[in-house]
Amino acid sequence: MSKVIKFSDISDAVKELCLQAAFKLPDDTLKALQESLTIEKSPAGRSILNQCLQNASLASSESLPLCQDTGFAIFFVNMGSEVSVDGGILTDAINDGVRRGYKEGYLRNSIVKDPLFNRINTGDNTPALIHIDIVKGDMLSITLLPKGGGSENMSSLAMLKPSDGREGIIDFIVSTVVKAGGNPCPPVVVGAGIGGTADKAALLAKKALLRQIGSSHADPQYAGLEKDILARINDSGVGPQGLGGTVSALAVHIETFPCHIASMPVAVNLNCHSARKATVNL
User: Fold this and answer.
1) Are 161 and 242 within one domain?
2) How many helical (H) and strand (E) elements, i.e. helices and strands, does the chain have?
3) Adjacent-strand bridge partners of 255
4) pLDDT (0 to 100) of residue 272
5) Which of 147, 172, 197 represents a domain boundary (last residue)?
6) Does the residue 178 lie in any domain?
7) Alpha-carbon gap, residue 150 to 231, rounded angstroms
8) Which of 7, 8, 11, 165 could tie 88 with a disulfide, CB 3.0–4.6 Å?
9) Are residues 252 and 119 in the same domain?
């Protein structure tokens, strides 16, 4: 028996997601920042981390955006095979919710109609970027990952050779973070996608940012790789806001996919210290 979800219920839920993600830093991000404060050796770095925590507290208590860049609204949707939408199309419902949420929350609209020839603001932060996976069951799970331009612009992709191996991957990911410096507002969360094709690796890297900060990969080999990359990044000296220090990254998360025998795509997507995300299940 199928489960029917109203268009308006999806729109309402997405509107609330936009407000929640803009105003409230997730618990895992808060915990990671608090733990970083005990590790950071630089006085300037500790001052910055304290300001990040104070900013999060004020944003939550005053219902104010954590950052003036309220981001590209990126959605990851798991839609149960037994779910149907009454009154319209799922993507339209999500965009309607974004429109309403960004207006109600007085959130900055950051999307332009055309990337090159007609860079006119759409005025409502749509269209959202929506990734949909069809899964078993009757649950509709919607996760919003608002992505600011400063961190997104530091994304990187390399089509490495299989012979580059583990060290080649480490070198590429670490160099991406170091070259980014203060641009993505560190300490960052590093999402890395390994395998698939160029487009799949890029999607995996962004999906990796959805994991709980500090969680380890299920495969011990990749868990070890995450740990080694994080150590290398934090030894780089980039530090909070790129001004030097001990904590340059809060976590490194890797997602993988099988790939061609001749290829080893590696993509990196960075999230700033204000690692916003929110989920609703309908």
Assistant:
1) yes
2) 8, 10
3) 193
4) 97
5) 147
6) yes
7) 23
8) 7
9) no
Domain at 91, CATH number: 3.30.360
User: In the chain, how many domains are there?
Assistant: 2
Q: Report yes or no: 25 and 59 within 8 Å, Cβ to Cβ.
A: yes
N residues, the chain? 282
- State the pTM of this model: 0.96
Greatest Cα pair distance, the chain, in angstroms, is 60
By C-alpha distance, which of 140, 29, 167 is closest to 83? 140
Residues 124 and 184 in one domain: no
Q: Please choose, from the candidates 90, 105, 127, the residue with its C-alpha nearest in 3D space to the C-alpha of residue 11.
A: 90
Of 62, 74, 58, 51, nearest to 105 by C-alpha is 62
Print the domain residue range for 141. 3-21+66-147
* CA nearest to 161, candidates 268, 259, 267, 265: 265
Residue with tokens 């729109």: 11
Question: Are residues 136 and 156 located together in one domain of the fold?
Answer: no
* pLDDT value, residue 220: 98
Q: Which of 118, 147, 176 is the last residue of a domain?
A: 147
Distance CA 280, CA 131 (A): 15
**What pLDDT was estimated at residue 2?**
87
Does residue 243 form part of some domain? Answer: yes
Q: At what angle do helices 27-39 and 43-62 cross, to 10 degrees?
A: 160
* Percent helix, percent strand, percent coil in the chain, to nearest 5: 40, 25, 35
Q: Where are the alpha helices (DSSP H) in the chain?
A: 7-23, 27-39, 43-62, 90-104, 149-152, 165-180, 198-208, 220-234
Residue 222: pLDDT over 80: yes
